[in-house]
């Protein structure tokens, strides 16, 4: 990448971003890149409110397209996950222009619906990694947001999940989000990919069920293998499930014939590393 | 149906059944059918314990096959849902013999995984309806279990969901359970069916997401229409979702072009009516 200043647009396709995020993010960007501070534009939609969502469906779709289709932006950064990307993905994908193809897209969790659709459409700079609101996480929020900036500004190799390499395709998803794309026209083609999966705030029986679903899909069975990210804030299982998330992942990999490739350094936390979709 | 006594076998393919169920169910059967009391055999597996499950996977699969493949049983009744049917469905389907095809199968919720697989395999007497443990529900548990017996013993028309008719194929599922079958070899062919969907103990955003998933599946879009069962014990949504379950169902039906056919008399409650898979 050149030394020119990057321009990053932030949209929130699902839940509303917190109002304190922009100042924190801009200060961080200034401190990390004093000579070429990226311009970070938070679309007003990030702060809109429509019941559960950061604005109603048309508002969120339009905001995405405002940034994606604007030549002046180098990257579209998701402000926050939550829930709602599936409601706008059809309108977003139907409204993209050529300017959108050259951008970097970065986010995770619920926004995986949009990452999947963009990747499926052939976009080449789609990645799983921290959202802007991760800067508010305790003990390390700056590191998470800084890692996202390092990827968007300079493709810093140290921002990458450590096993990501230039010779093997990768993809990363929240388990539930990927599960809810299976059997729909949004399901991405992950043949030959290392598929990294993480989860948050689900009971162990639900993790087991999601992995049943994912590993039972014939197309998913053509992945190179599955790596298990962190499963955090697991909710109580009554009675105890009797297996932890790694045992469960190994179980379904064995049953489905998918190689289990160990742990991945991703999750709903400050250590969440960047995983490019496709080859880095 | 003839007046001969029916023989019903009960298995629990997922979570453990409570020990007080058999006495309650047998007393009810005696009171409802004093002259031809059905013999109700609770497989010992119903009370087995293996962490989350009513026995480990091989134990549950074997119990299912013990009843299903035994000519002397007229019906296999699920003792309880919970979670776990997806772990045994492959072994169950691989082990069925001709004797299994002539039986009635009755259950709902998690056991929908097995109902789907049996229906897909061409079994003709598969139905969605109360499990044995529903007899323990407050205020009406006997009515729920009695309705299941009325279906298994005498095909009582009053046990049926009121819109079920002899000319239109039907199917019924818990939303999450059907969602987790989409895109797998277990997904049932529901072309032309009235598809009834119910849910329990999920937040509204999850109901919305499940309906996105279900209505986005190209094969599901060939149903005759969707009817919405009850969505009970909906967990809090923060912030408020802004739509209720019927508004959400109508929204996704409109978006997907699937006719919304109104409310169905099914759910996780004592009023849960019988919905045969296929034509009644």
Q: What keywords describe this structure?
A:
homodimer; 33% helix; four-stranded parallel β-sheet; alpha/beta; globular; six-stranded mixed β-sheet; 280 residues
If you had to describe this structure to a student in words, what would you say it looks like?
The structure is a homodimer of 280-residue chains. Chain A is α/β, with parallel strands linked by helices and 280 residues long. Chain A is built from 9 helices and 10 strands. Chain A has helices at residues 21-32, 57-68, 85-95, 98-101, 112-120, 141-154, 175-179, 204-216, 245-256, and strands at 7-11, 39-42, 75-78, 104-107, 126-128, 170-174, 194-200, 225-232, 260-263, 275-276. In chain A, the strands form 2 sheets. Chain A has a 6-stranded mixed β-sheet with strand order 2-1-3-4-5-10, with helices on both faces. In chain A, strands 6-7-8-9 form a 4-stranded parallel β-sheet. The longest helix of chain A has 14 residues, at 141-154. The A-B interface holds A 49-53, 83, 86-87, 90, 179-187, 204-205, 208-210, 212-213, 216-219, 237, 239-243, 255 and B 49-53, 83, 86-87, 90, 179-187, 204-205, 208-210, 212-213, 216-219, 237, 239-243, 255.
């Amino acid at each position: 990448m050149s030394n020119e200043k990057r321009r990053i647009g932030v949209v929130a396709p699902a839940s509303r971003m917190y109002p304190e995020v922009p100042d924190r993010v801009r200060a961080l960007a200034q401190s990390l890149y004093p000579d070429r501070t990226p311009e970070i534009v938070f679309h007003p939609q990030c702060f809109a409110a429509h019941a559960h969502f950061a604005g109603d469906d048309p508002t969120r779709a339009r905001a995405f397209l405002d940034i994606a289709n604007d030549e002046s932006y180098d990257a579209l950064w998701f402000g926050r996950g939550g829930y709602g990307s599936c409601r706008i993905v059809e309108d977003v994908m139907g409204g993209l222009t050529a300017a959108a193809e050259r951008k970097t897209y970065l986010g995770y969790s619920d926004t995986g619906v949009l990452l999947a659709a963009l990747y499926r459409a052939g976009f080449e700079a789609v990645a799983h990694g921290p959202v802007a609101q991760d800067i508010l996480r305790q003990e390390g929020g700056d590191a998470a947001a800084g890692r996202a900036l390092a990827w968007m500004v300079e493709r810093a190799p140290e921002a990458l999940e450590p096993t990501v390499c230039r010779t093997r395709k990768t993809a990363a998803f929240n388990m539930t989000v990927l599960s809810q794309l299976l059997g729909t026209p949004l399901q991405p083609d992950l043949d030959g990919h290392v598929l990294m999966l993480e989860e948050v705030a689900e009971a162990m029986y639900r993790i087991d069920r999601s992995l049943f679903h994912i590993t039972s899909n014939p197309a998913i069975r053509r992945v190179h293998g599955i790596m298990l990210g962190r499963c955090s804030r697991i909710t109580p299982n009554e009675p105890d499930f009797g297996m932890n998330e790694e045992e469960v992942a190994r179980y379904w990999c064995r049953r489905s014939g998918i190689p289990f490739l160990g742990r991945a350094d991703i999750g709903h936390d400050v250590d969440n590393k960047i995983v490019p979709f496709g080859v880095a």
